[in-house]
């Protein structure tokens, strides 16, 4: 904590705070609630959102930043080595910023009923959802700090000296069977964009495609979509859906070293993910859309990792995204074309 | 969200961000990690902390605000009806504020290995920890909004129209068997106070006694202790421990309507909790200490609930706490006596 770097000048906020989007009631037994008090209803599937609105420039388009698998909104806050996160940087550049925890994780909580039912013996253990976390060892190749644990790429932009602080950002991820289908986060993101009267939706990794899905639920509120290192860009959109996406500015961002084996069962390499997004961009462009790829290595910026918002050059990368927002999305309410 | 009330003037921060305190490595199997990637180590038992440091008055004593059972640091943020939380209010009054999520909850995560072991059949379901949440129905009497669900006390200070937004703050609480003993949050709070070079430690409800325990781990870093509606004040401290606590300013805060039945198995009424704290205050005073009770009804302030930091008069209550800090704790580094 001593290493936290205090920026100057001060951060001047018109407002900050937090709230929830979505959620519904679940009726549960005393046992399902842990037995301290009477049976009844609890809120489940709500999405926690923390926000900061800058004093200067608060009429700029709001930006919603969604984290990836096994992580929380912490991804966008202070970096593992104590530098400024994208949340504050975008605020300092004049954008209201909204950082959720996905439904089922962090301050959004999860539905514990099934766990207590299994404990009590009324439900078989096999009904439990699989809960995901990534080992430190798996993170090195999968997040592309280096091909092997402890051996960073010579040009790695990730602050590998602070990799243990990234490890602490990990939380159990119940997205794979522990939350409803479709993922309530998608509707919550769409509703958040509506309540904000339009927003840029940004996803990362597992949530990389979420902005696309949220935009399809309510296209007019999605002023721009930023897909940061998405796990996969969908290949199964209908022509109608592609036409809708072609009406929205879309930016896809990938880092470097995408060709190494991830060691993860869901993809052989991040190049697969990159190519799936190139294919989607091609379809959207063919429909007249403005989707585009931001590929830093092509511009001579090397060594960016999967955690590009935490890399040492994270603000340089942010500047490209901010410039794209300025050029393609413009001010709140009025999209530039 | 439309109801969020924007204060003016702007909030001017010297710094804001987040970090982790504590944590250790746990070696886990591929199955325990959810099977997506290789076996290895993850961080567990770390404590997430979010902070805001005001530009003016940042040399004032920092205040650490810890939430209660089934809740997260959200307790101290924007109230359920969209008013300013104690986190921002204390910052606006010149105090750096640090808001953790207890180990095992929210952005601090929890250790999922046992859950995946039970799912895989290698551990009996009975080994699962009991996971606690409070039903909406149980919250009405237990948090003292009214004696029965839906029927608020005529003088209730809680914004009962927004009680569903409080419900959304609930997260599964693994404190009862799902985290190590002693609770790692206690050591983390003590370490946080040391890193801050002294802090006022504030706990609420389940964490109400935590400031006492953290102070006993490192008395010199605990510049003041604020116990807000503690579930229980310990009765088993040694004379040596009482002597230590007598060297630290201590304030206990309780709301109104403490005599109604809670409906919760751990206490018949909150008056029991109040009396346990009066007993502790008595012991500390007998040892020459400055511990004291802040009992709003005695001052004609009626209707405060267990969630006093979210009540409609939450800033009035905060003013009493701030005045106590000013008088009893003083500036960072130098305690007034």
Automatic annotation (TrEMBL), chains A, B:
InterPro entries recorded: AB_hydrolase_fold, Carboxylesterase_BioH
Identification of the protein by name: AB hydrolase-1 domain-containing protein
């Amino acid at each position: 904590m001593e290493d936290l770097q205090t920026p100057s000048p001060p951060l001047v906020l018109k407002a900050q705070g937090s709230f929830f989007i979505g959620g519904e009631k679940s009726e549960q037994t005393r046992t399902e609630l842990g037995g301290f008090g009477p049976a009844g209803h609890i809120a489940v599937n709500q999405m926690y959102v923390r926000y900061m609105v800058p004093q200067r420039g608060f009429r700029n388009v709001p930006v919603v930043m969604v984290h990836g698998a096994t992580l929380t909104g912490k991804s966008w806050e202070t970096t593992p080595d104590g530098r400024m996160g994208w949340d504050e940087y975008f605020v300092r550049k004049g954008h209201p910023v909204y950082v959720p925890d996905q439904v089922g994780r962090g301050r959004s909580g999860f539905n514990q009923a099934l766990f207590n039912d299994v404990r009590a013996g009324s439900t078989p253990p096999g009904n439990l959802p699989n809960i995901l976390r990534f080992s430190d060892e798996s993170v090195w190749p999968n997040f592309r700090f280096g091909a092997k644990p402890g051996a960073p790429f010579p040009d790695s932009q990730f602050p590998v000296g602070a990799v243990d602080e990234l490890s602490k950002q990990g939380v159990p991820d119940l997205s794979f069977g522990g939350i409803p289908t479709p993922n309530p986060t998608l509707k919550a993101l769409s509703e958040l964009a509506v309540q904000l009267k339009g927003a840029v939706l940004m996803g990362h990794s597992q949530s990389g495609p979420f902005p696309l899905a949220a935009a399809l639920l309510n296209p007019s509120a999605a002023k721009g979509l930023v897909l940061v290192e998405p796990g996969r860009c969908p290949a199964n959109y209908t022509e109608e859906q592609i036409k809708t996406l072609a009406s929205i500015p879309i930016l896809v961002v990938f880092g470097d070293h995408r060709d190494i084996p991830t060691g993860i069962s869901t993809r052989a390499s991040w190049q697969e993910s990159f190519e799936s997004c190139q294919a989607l961009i091609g379809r959207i462009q063919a429909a007249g859309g403005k989707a585009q790829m931001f590929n830093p290595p092509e511009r001579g910026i090397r060594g960016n990792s999967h955690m590009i918002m935490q890399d040492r050059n994270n603000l340089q990368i942010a500047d490209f995204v901010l410039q794209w927002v300025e050029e393609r999305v413009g001010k709140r309410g009025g999209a530039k074309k």
